[in-house]
Amino acid sequence: MMRPAWPLERALFALAGSMTLLSAVLVLLVSPWFVLLAVFVGLNQWLYVSVGACPASVVLERLAALERRCGW
User: Which of 12, 30, 36, 60 is 20 to 30 A from residue 72's alpha carbon, by CA?
Assistant: First the structure.
């Protein structure tokens, strides 16, 4: 039994969470400047919420052929 592909929103949520966790680890182990990565992720999340698109959503729609499931 094959599962359907993830919707775009779920993939974006997973990507944002992974990048935020990665930035937290990098802040602890490498440099405090990696906090800017978490800021960038947060800004892109707000961009998606307010406009309906962000750089990651455009890339995932075109390259991974993910479809939106929410009613934008």
Answer: 36
